[in-house]
Amino acid sequence: MIDSKFQTSPPRSPTSSTSSFRAGSPLPTPAVYRQDCMSAAAKRYKYLRRLIKFQQMDFEFAFWQMWYLFMAPQKVYRNFHYRKETKSQFARDDPAFLVLLSVWLCVSSIWFAFVLDLSFGHFIKFLFYVIFVDCIGVGLVIATFFWFVTNRYLRRDSCQDQDVEWGYAFDVHLNAFFPLFVILHGVQLLIWNIFPALISHPMFISTFFSNTLWAVALWYYVYITFLGYSCLPILQNTHVLLYPMTAMFVVYVVSITIGWNMCINMMDFYRNRL
């Protein structure tokens, strides 16, 4: 259904391909530059096929991306522009980032199993939920939503022959999900183990600290999502993607006021779901 509505990165004529991507660049055209664009189905097939070829994945570069998603996320999206110039697509063609993220999810799930005192069967179920529901399942929904909204409402009138790739929308979700994951499944769980009184007790300071961690994580997600779409030259008015921050701030203030500790609720949610 996705492929039939919008053609992902439509083929370009040989006369305009280089000039459209490398206008104003003093550098020669890269040797790996593609003048033609694969269809969305072909890109998807190529991506999935590489999931089992670990020797072809660049894990060192995936580590670099994860580091800079915290330190300077703009640098990560500059690399997406370089991929567009060389391979005629913004979306990743290397699944190393997704594989590495799945490994970190496995590690954090083991830690959660220890904290929640889960049996092996419950651990497997928890791992399944975290990877295939919380990360990938929710990501498919969010990526499809932003893919539709950006193509339908935010494309420039002069760029109607181009579109936001669905694969790129999913990459933006993965980029935004990683800092959120580290804060909520890493920092928060570490504090839960070492300083439980600071985060897991029904006191004001615990609620304030816990909900502040959640606010930072969710604001990170929104901001990196905004960066992902604002760097696309075919889109306009991408600042509207920052509007959810206002609603999130209101929820943050209200939650602290009524004493709703998000960390405790997350732990209770995981226990009840299992």
Automatic annotation (TrEMBL):
<keyword id="KW-0472">Membrane</keyword>
<dbReference type="GO" id="GO:0000139">
    <property type="term" value="C:Golgi membrane"/>
</dbReference>
<protein>
    <submittedName>
        <fullName>Protein unc-50 homolog</fullName>
    </submittedName>
</protein>
<keyword id="KW-0812">Transmembrane</keyword>
<feature type="compositionally biased region" description="Low complexity">
    <location>
        <begin position="8"/>
        <end position="20"/>
    </location>
</feature>
<feature type="transmembrane region" description="Helical">
    <location>
        <begin position="126"/>
        <end position="148"/>
    </location>
</feature>
<dbReference type="InterPro" id="IPR007881">
    <property type="entry name" value="UNC-50"/>
</dbReference>
<comment type="similarity">
    <text>Belongs to the unc-50 family.</text>
</comment>
<feature type="transmembrane region" description="Helical">
    <location>
        <begin position="211"/>
        <end position="235"/>
    </location>
</feature>
<feature type="transmembrane region" description="Helical">
    <location>
        <begin position="176"/>
        <end position="199"/>
    </location>
</feature>
<feature type="transmembrane region" description="Helical">
    <location>
        <begin position="96"/>
        <end position="114"/>
    </location>
</feature>
<keyword id="KW-1133">Transmembrane helix</keyword>
<feature type="transmembrane region" description="Helical">
    <location>
        <begin position="241"/>
        <end position="264"/>
    </location>
</feature>
<dbReference type="Pfam" id="PF05216">
    <property type="entry name" value="UNC-50"/>
</dbReference>
<feature type="region of interest" description="Disordered">
    <location>
        <begin position="1"/>
        <end position="27"/>
    </location>
</feature>
